């Protein structure tokens, strides 16, 4: 007798909820009832993303027949993809890059208004040749919004908690766009996160009514490749939110200036709940005298996450700065050449670091003095050389390793990763899987401990463009699925 099918739906839902995404997918193939339970349970469907990017027409027709209601969709712009999108009860929608026309803008508004459950929308670098007016507006209350500044006006009726605005087309940027941002923000009473990325946003802070806007802002990120000219107004804006801000990042990639340093000084003296702090560029001739900061220690001792993009040539100044943050657990370090001495200082002072993200690992990290005794997570953004020595040195504590952009995966990396007995998460972003990386994956997956592999690769397509593919495997249960993936892709 099939006792398991005597269980009521709510009990099966509980069981499926304790399985990995890979096992849940397998259960959906067992019978029609299980597939229906999984496909109609929102908590289970949150795990899956329907990818409609760069798929052919016959595959799109198959997608139209999908019965289960997906909550996450990644799509490019086409009539077919919009038809598929409207069939699902979406909470997360991401569009890949394309250039708008007024007709597309109106179609987008109409599509979003037909998705009442939508909570997250990413218009992934949507671009226009010029700012377009749209008579219609989005009425869905999107909680997390990412879009280009040119289209912010269509979301004026939304109530947003997290907002990210892009501006990469400096020639098309004008004062009217700043007023569009202001008109949008003045209606936001629940905004907690604000991120401004691109050019010309510093002009926003000279609007007198903007700097007195107040909402429960917790996270503020400002990144630009143009000089920051209105730092006094920016400081006034910070002062409005000094009791709520827990995270501050101010960064730019051009010649640094004194105003940014004053912003840092204000933050370290006044943002009483600061937990995450990112340093932009600092010049030696305008270096902050950190030992002169008043009442900063009481604030900086609570900071748990720190991002360092610049450093002083005066090592004593660097030490003085690092000593202000005795409880750092997460460090993002933008490495440059000949940083060995600074890295030794960091490891000596910041002994509680559990998560380390670096732009690259190179020979500077081979110094045995560079040791983080509590390091659990390591993220390397670019290939910078042989990092196996550093990984082996931290093998007893490392649980998560992410390789973001690597051209290849040599055998020395594999050996060092295999030396980590507590590793449960590995992320690879490669052009191709090498034989060494496959041997490593099989070796780790054979352990009794659960292990998650997130694999991304970018490959050329038939039309000379590049297609990015994402895969997630949960071992040991997904070992058979991984073998099938390996065979299908004819990997050697």
UniProtKB/TrEMBL annotation:
Residue ranges constituting the F-box domain according to the UniProt record: 1-48
Origin superkingdom: Eukaryota
One Pfam short name: F-box-like
The name this protein goes by in its record: F-box domain-containing protein
Organism annotation: Chironomus riparius
């Amino acid at each position: 007798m099939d006792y398991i099918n005597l269980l009521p739906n709510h009990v099966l839902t509980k069981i499926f909820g304790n399985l990995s995404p890979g096992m849940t997918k397998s259960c959906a193939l067992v019978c029609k009832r299980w597939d229906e339970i999984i496909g109609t349970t929102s908590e289970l469907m949150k795990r899956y993303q329907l990818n409609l990017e760069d798929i052919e027409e016959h595959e799109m027709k198959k997608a139209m027949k999908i019965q289960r209601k997906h909550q996450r969709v990644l799509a490019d712009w086409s009539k077919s993809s919009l038809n598929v999108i409207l069939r699902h009860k979406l909470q997360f929608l991401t569009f890949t890059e394309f250039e708008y026309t007024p007709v597309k803008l109106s179609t987008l508004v109409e599509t979003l208004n037909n998705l009442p459950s939508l909570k997250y929308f990413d218009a992934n670098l949507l671009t226009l040749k010029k700012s377009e007016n749209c008579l219609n507006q989005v009425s869905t209350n999107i909680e997390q919004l990412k879009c280009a500044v040119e289209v912010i006006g269509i979301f004026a009726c939304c109530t947003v908690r997290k907002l990210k605005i892009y501006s990469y087309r400096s020639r098309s940027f004008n004062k009217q766009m700043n007023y569009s941002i202001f008109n949008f923000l003045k209606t936001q009473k629940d905004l907690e996160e604000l991120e401004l990325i691109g050019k010309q946003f510093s002009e926003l802070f000279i609007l007198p009514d903007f700097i007195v806007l107040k909402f429960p802002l917790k996270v503020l990120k400002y990144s630009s490749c143009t000089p920051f000219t209105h730092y006094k107004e920016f400081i006034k804006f910070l002062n409005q939110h000094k009791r709520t801000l827990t995270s501050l990042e101010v960064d730019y990639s051009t010649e640094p200036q004194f105003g940014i340093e004053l912003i840092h000084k204000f933050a370290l003296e006044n943002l009483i709940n600061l937990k995450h702090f990112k340093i932009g560029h600092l010049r030696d001739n305008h270096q902050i005298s950190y030992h002169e900061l008043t009442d900063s220690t009481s604030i900086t001792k609570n900071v748990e996450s720190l991002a360092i993009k610049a450093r002083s040539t005066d090592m004593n100044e660097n030490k003085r700065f690092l000593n202000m943050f005795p409880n750092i657990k997460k460090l993002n370090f933008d490495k440059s050449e000949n940083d060995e001495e600074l890295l030794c200082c960091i490891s000596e002072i910041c002994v509680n670091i559990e998560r380390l993200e670096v732009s690259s690992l190179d020979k500077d990290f081979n110094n045995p003095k560079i040791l983080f005794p509590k390091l659990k997570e390591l993220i390397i953004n670019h290939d910078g050389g042989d990092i196996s020595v550093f990984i082996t040195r931290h093998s007893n504590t490392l649980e998560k390793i992410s390789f973001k952009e690597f051209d290849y995966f040599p055998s020395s990396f594999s050996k060092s990763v295999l030396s980590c007995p507590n590793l449960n998460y590995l992320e690879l972003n490669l052009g191709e899987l090498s034989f060494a990386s496959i041997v490593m994956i099989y070796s780790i997956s054979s352990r009794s401990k659960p292990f998650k592999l997130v694999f991304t690769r970018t490959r050329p397509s038939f039309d000379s463009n590049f297609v990015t593919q994402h895969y997630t495997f949960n071992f040991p249960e997904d070992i058979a699925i991984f073998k099938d993936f390996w065979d299908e892709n004819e990997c050697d």
